[in-house]
Amino acid sequence: MDMALLEVRNLTKKYKKFTLRDISFDLPAGYILGYIGRNGAGKTTTLNAVTHLIRPDGGSVTVDGLSFSEDPVAYRDSIGYIGDSSYFPTAMTSRDIRTILRDFYPSFDPDSFDGYVEKWELPEKEKISSYSRGMKVKLMFAAALSRKTKLLILDEATNGLDPMMRREILRILQEYIADGTKSVLFSTHILEDLQDIADYVFLIEKGEMVFCEAKDDLLESYLLVKGGREELTASLEDRLIGVERNEYGFKALFRTDDGDILPVGLAAEKPTIDQIVVHTLEGRKS
Amino acid sequence: MRMLKFARVDYMKCRRFGFILILFPALSAIMMIVEPDSPVLFSITYCLFAGIILSSFPFNMESREERGFVQMLPARPGELVWGHYAFGLLVLLATFLLGIASLMIARIFVPSIRLFSMDGEDLRPLYPAVLGIAVVFVGLQNLLFTVLRFENAHLAQIFRIVPAFVFFFGMSNGYKESMSFPDLLNGLPGVGILAVCFAVFLLLGCVSSFISIRKWE
Lengths: 286, 217
Hints:
heterodimer; A: alpha/beta; Rossmann fold; 2 domains; four-stranded antiparallel beta sheet; 10 helices; 14 strands; B: mainly alpha; two-stranded antiparallel sheet
């Protein structure tokens, strides 16, 4: 990776029933990292530790070389955060949000905010509680994009949105990183979104990193193998990842970048990120 | 001052309950007009009772979902809690001043109402003293909310109302029992009591701020 805009090192957070263990990754400027995993795998805990909504027990996080402890105000000003549900107090209006942003964020640009509100036709005087899910997401984006942030963090922000809105968000994210000085950390369940825009993919399971790779390398590293039941010998099964049996045969991942050669006769195709994730997690279970 | 900015955020969250600030002084003015012989400090206490309840609203309205916005605002740890304290203090001052204003309005209709004396006793030192005691109640209430972080809405409701009632009935009882409350504070300068109470309030704010930083998961 190039020089990192977001640098996460050995991040650890212990709860009674869950531990985030030793999470490390770099995200260079101008790229999007998809942060994926099952429910409860530790995605939100990681994002909360990056934003310092929670205090990590160990490890460090820097955004453009700056840590939270060095300058909490500048650190928070450099991050834009979009949550899975609207985080604005519901009794407020978009005008109130504008006032608060102007009060707190040194880099807030009111004209830019007004531009987004007008463009997305967000009612200025209506309470946020009356907004639709799509309008709330747009308001979160307006609040984040009208500041000079360096890192945009999305925590399941595309959940429950219609395809048109999701497509618009993906376009916004690509525009955001276009000048090569900003990055996006994007946690999602909808792996199809990642397929379209992510440059790197981080998979987390039970609080631990499973892999963190460039998306293209990841897609090149595996084949999705299919075959009949009789073709699944014990020696082949040892070389496969996440074997999924059905009535007619099996499906599994085969790693191609460690020099192993696929036996002749088996059908193979390029997997999607979704398939890589499902089989990898399946493989870890067994 | 980010503390005042956070207080403004609290105001925006609680704005819809702002009518309480007007309602209670208006009711106390009506009570004084109907019963001009009742203690004027009772009216002030009644207004401060509403102020104590209103000052804790921001804690109750702090949902987990809001974390991504309010708690993400660029500030140093603990400043959010100081904002709650500033909001509480401003609400209390507003109810106090509106309470006095309502008594003055009541006096226009009933000139026999005496604002600063009762049965020959000088009540002037008691105004700041009563305000000071209410300030301490708000400080304690905020500390309680910071420490216990009520996730249960019903429990939060109880802790919002109980301190206000303790203040109200405790003080009102004093006024009724042949001015035992003035006797208790006799000789003490009202402003001095207010200053001490304010110092206690600041101390409670420091403790709350410290706890919120320590409890920051």
